[in-house]
Amino acid sequence: MAAPNLFGVEIPFVSHLGLELVLMEGGASELRYLPKPEHMNSFMVTHGGAVMTMLDVTLATAARSIDLEIGVVTIEMKTSFMRPCVGQLVSRGRLLHRTRSMAFTEGTIYDAQGNACAHATGTFKYVKRQPTGPQSAISTD
């Protein structure tokens, strides 16, 4: 039997990367991630795409943490890379402001020594969840 999905929804790419949800409540989120060799770039540090994915999920999770019944879609995200992301990573996100339809968030990834490696701000739109299955399609209306 599979472990329950703590994100509240199945996110295949997140499962593929191995992102682990630690906290998702009250406008805050925390994730852990131990990058695998195939997640490295040519400098043998975590690929920027994996770093941005971790930040995107961290921010989205913070946005959703106040209402697990609703989904979010990323509208925009700005990422700053401050140092190579190496080894076990922890990200922390927070919901800065929410309107009825939008969430404004920020989050930071830290390495095992507690050094900030990357930081992002993001805007998300709250959306109703669509039925899942082969006949369903995501609507952005």
Describe the structure.
The chain is an alpha+beta fold and 141 residues long. The chain has a single domain, classed as Roll (Thiol Ester Dehydrase, Chain A), CATH 3.10.129. Strands 1-2-4-5-6-3 form a six-stranded antiparallel β-sheet, with helices on one face. The chain is globular, with a radius of gyration of 15 Å. The termini are far apart. The C terminus is likely disordered.
Low-confidence stretches: 135-141
Strand content: 35-45%
CATH fold name: Thiol Ester Dehydrase, Chain A
Secondary structure tally, helices: 2
**Shape from CA axes?**
globular
Write a brief structural summary.
Helix content is 16%, strand content 38%. It is built from 2 helices and 6 strands, in the order αββαββββ.
Characteristic terms for this protein:
141 residues; alpha+beta; Thiol Ester Dehydrase, Chain A; six-stranded antiparallel sheet; 6 strands; disordered C terminus
Indicate the topology.
Blueprint: H1 12-17, E1 20-25, E2 28-33, H2 48-64, E3 71-81, E4 89-98, E5 102-110, E6 116-127
Antiparallel strand pairs: 1-2, 2-4, 3-6, 4-5, 5-6
